Amino acid sequence: MAKILVVWPPHVPSYFNAGHHTPLYMTAGHLRAEGHEVETCDASAAGLNWKAMGDLLYQGAYDVIAMMNDFDAVDGFERFVLYAQELCPGARLITFGRLSSMNPGFFARYALDAVVQSGDYETGVAHYARALAEGPVTTGLPGVTVREGDRWHPPTGPGDTLPAEQWVLPEVDEIPYDSYDRLYADDAHKFCGIPFRRELVVPAARGCPVNCDFCEVPAIFGLRERRLSVDATIDYIRRSYEKAPFEYVAFYAPTFTLDRRWVKELCQRFIEGPVSPQWKCATTIPHLSEELVALMGEAGCVRISVGLETLEPDGQGTLPRAKRIEEERFRELARWCEAAGIELNAFVIVGLPGTTAAGAARTREVLRDTGARFRPTVYTPLHEMTPAMTPLEISRFNRQLTSAPLGAESTEVYDFVFGGDDRLTSVYKNIPRRLSGGVS
């Protein structure tokens, strides 16, 4: 029906998580399933220069260019739109991603034709591509704002959300894993991947009922979780391991152990084989138990990441009740993980309302004492973003910088994120290398 480029425009990323890049490939797969000819380009991760980007646009002759966006990935956005207009003038431009879902009005400044602002990303782009096939698009669409001349037409209603069985999982053949490997190689950056081993991301779930106000997941994907079946999960891992030498699995899910029955079934299947990968996940502390952690370790889990946020009592009042964790509860979890042979990785938010630099330092000390990995980010009040902000102002909402300048106070905050850490992971030593395809 249409020739479509699904692209993450060139920019310098402030952080890398391969899981955040899966919507690029899932959107492409969804569009292919609807009959479109689709190419993908993860320009930032692949390190593409602007000449290479221009070659792609000029030679591609695309009908639609679907541009992925994110909170801090807007520094190259305006330039990409210019290149697309100049070198592929017949293409319609639509954007989708986390930033347009949280702050859609920001994109009215760009010469775009449509903006996906609610619902699953792939359904919004598909609605627009489908409408284009029928002629000029002169109204909004479900979850999609559409430009007609100088006028923006609002969405006709909320965007669609797909049941998990309708997700099209990424085609591993088109993902630039060599580039991903290089981005994960230096653990001092505190990125989520495991250095020296190749990661297969499995997008296992969307949505989260925990509903932290500093997290975009509930606002974009809803409070009700949607999750792949165990059969579909295992089949995807098997097929992917047969295609490429992956060495561990990263489950991309907001709260991986939310459905304990599902996790137990998956673990039992891993234990029984023949699909038995090493793997990691992220979850919350209340959704773990000693029995479950032990089972996960037996089933090949090498790292559990938890949203600890803070151990400072005065800072926990702004957290959902499920996230208010006492020090002894965390120490107990650390003991469970150590017994199971699992690395514990703790997400800590520096600058959370009610917290202090001294409190963050104390939280870091507890993590070091328990052997847990300290993964700091800066508090980001996403609700404070406005459409009128400049790209530079928006780029502050990247969980590395404070959303507004703090002056001398920022020195203490930034010491946690940029001050260095001599406690680097060694968990890769627990993951065997694979030199060729086949399930290990």
From TrEMBL:
<dbReference type="InterPro" id="IPR006638">
    <property type="entry name" value="Elp3/MiaA/NifB-like_rSAM"/>
</dbReference>
<keyword id="KW-0411">Iron-sulfur</keyword>
<dbReference type="Pfam" id="PF04055">
    <property type="entry name" value="Radical_SAM"/>
</dbReference>
<keyword id="KW-0949">S-adenosyl-L-methionine</keyword>
<keyword id="KW-0408">Iron</keyword>
<keyword id="KW-0479">Metal-binding</keyword>
<feature type="domain" description="Radical SAM core">
    <location>
        <begin position="194"/>
        <end position="412"/>
    </location>
</feature>
<dbReference type="InterPro" id="IPR023404">
    <property type="entry name" value="rSAM_horseshoe"/>
</dbReference>
<dbReference type="InterPro" id="IPR058240">
    <property type="entry name" value="rSAM_sf"/>
</dbReference>
<dbReference type="GO" id="GO:0046872">
    <property type="term" value="F:metal ion binding"/>
</dbReference>
<dbReference type="InterPro" id="IPR051198">
    <property type="entry name" value="BchE-like"/>
</dbReference>
<protein>
    <submittedName>
        <fullName>Radical SAM family protein</fullName>
    </submittedName>
</protein>
<dbReference type="GO" id="GO:0051536">
    <property type="term" value="F:iron-sulfur cluster binding"/>
</dbReference>
<dbReference type="InterPro" id="IPR007197">
    <property type="entry name" value="rSAM"/>
</dbReference>
<dbReference type="GO" id="GO:0003824">
    <property type="term" value="F:catalytic activity"/>
</dbReference>
